[in-house]
Design goal:
The protein is an alpha+beta fold. InterPro entries: ABM_dom, Dimeric_a/b-barrel.
């Protein structure tokens, strides 16, 4: 089993259009990373601004590499300050 990150984030209305515009590129780049098995972020159709997240990576190093790339990306700038609520499973204790 790989490392799975799942959860959600909520976007304030004032930032919603920026997030929606940046999300396709963020998803495409993430899916292209070595070790990425699955990367889905979808906006809840009944709750605008609520985005459900499911990411699966081969191992902890692949997840760390993903986070390093994200920290230096345009996505980090656009999504700065948005609270994320995630659970990560599959990491060694």
């Amino acid at each position: 089993m790989g490392v799975i990150l799942s959860g959600y984030f909520k976007v304030p209305p004032a930032h919603l259009e920026d997030i929606r515009a940046a999300l396709p590129r963020h998803i495409r780049l993430s899916r292209g990373e070595p070790g990425c098995l699955c990367f889905d972020i979808t906006e809840d159709p009944d709750q605008p601004g609520l985005f459900n997240v499911y990411e699966e990576f081969t191992d902890a190093e692949a997840l760390r590499a993903h986070r390093r790339r994200c920290d230096a990306s345009a996505w980090a700038e656009v999504s700065h300050g948005i609270q994320r609520h995630y659970t990560v499973t599959g990491l060694a204790p």
